[in-house]
Amino acid sequence: MSESRTTADFWFDPLCPWAWMTSRWMLEVEKVRPVDVRWHVMSLAVLNEDKLDEVPPEYREMLETQAWGPVRVVIAARELHGDEVVGGLYTALGTRFHNKGEGPTRTAIREALEDAGLPVSLAEYADKDTYDAELRASHHEGISKVGQEVGTPVIAVPGPDGGEIAFFGPVVTPAPEGEEAARLWDGTLMVASVPGFYEIKRSRTQGPDFSNL
Question: Which of 121, 114, 143 is nearest to 13 (CA)?
Answer without folding.
Answer: 143
